[in-house]
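Re: that chain you flagged

S.,

Sorry for the slow reply, it's been a week of failed gels. I finally had a moment to sit down with the sequence you sent. For the record, here it is as I used it:
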Amino acid sequence: MWLLSLLLALESCAFSTNGYITSCEPVLGKDSLRPAVCGKCHIEVKDGKLLITPAEDCPAYQVYKCTTREGKTFFINTLGCRPYKEKN
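Prediction finished late last night. Pasting the structure tokens below so you have them in one place:
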């Protein structure tokens, strides 16, 4: 929760990873079942950085699979708004 409070206090926040982000692709398709909650942030890649901006509207919940230049992947969703690794 402290991270969300910090995000809401800032206009935008760039999450720093150990590598350049090459892409973040949505995981949930148009017809996927998803929680009936508003997302709390917008997620995009700009100039190789992951930008997490607080949502003022009510974006649909989405999960993104992001890839670094080194080929490592991680996930981030619009509710938790922080990167996590897939559990094996």
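What I noticed first: The first helix runs from residue 2 to 9.

Talk soon,
D.
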